[in-house]
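Researcher: Can you fold this with S-adenosyl-L-homocysteine in place?
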Amino acid sequence: MFAYGEKVLLIDAKKRRYLFTLKTDGEFHTHSGFLSHSEVVGSQEGSVLRSTKGAEFIVLRPTLEDFVIQMPRGAQVIYPKDLAPICMMADIYPGAKVFESGLGSGALSMTMLRYGAIIDGYEIREDFANRAQTNVREFLGADSLSRYRVSVKDVYAGIDEVGFDRMVLDLPEPWQVVPHAEKSLRRGAILVAYSPSITQAVKTRETLGEGWLDHRTLEVLHRTWHIEGTSVRPDHRMVAHTGFLTSARFVGN
Ligand code: SAH
């Protein structure tokens, strides 16, 4: 059953998705009437509720993917298509000590926290640092903030902490962080950098000198399919590009 304070996802007949938090006396308004939050509270996932004008909505709990796509954002977020592969390439596991920079809107942070990471994050803009923490708290709850230590700092100037198992970067110039990574990562650690432009990936790769093994750069392409009766084919549109993922393993210098 849903309770006040929880997030809910409503899907209408045209498959449009609406995400909001259930509040006492809250109302969800659309062009086809409204629905009071109290009707959602007490219902179960998969129930169909009707607005005052008879429009039908299916109620579900939002997934991490739903939240990342709909959450408030300052900076550009990394999309689910890349979030999961980043966690696999970086081998994020429960209890992993991860260094992350920049934090932006916190999409990557909340994904790694959900995989069980303990994150130290540097973000140069205070408003984004706050936004990231708010988004993490909204989706994962206040308890998760104990595994999310955020500092408003310029990562190009250095990293104060040491002993990280993993480092994940989403910054304009990740190569500037490589010398700092060599001081703050433990031997056997993994670095992953997400970069929209291939020249950024190349420059990062060129900076990973001796002491780094297993270099890889890849991009993830998702091609969804239209499956309806006898019409079974790729969808006409796809996202052609988001970013390149570069990873390497640190073995000491
Ligand atoms: N991965 C994030 C988006 C990060 S956008 C997400 O999924 O939501 C890139 C971020 O890097 C921006 O917030 C920007 O302010 C921050 N940034 C840029 N240069 C920085 C620096 N030198 N040190 C710390 N953060 C930096």
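Model: Folded with S-adenosyl-L-homocysteine in place. The first strand starts at residue 7 and ends at 12.
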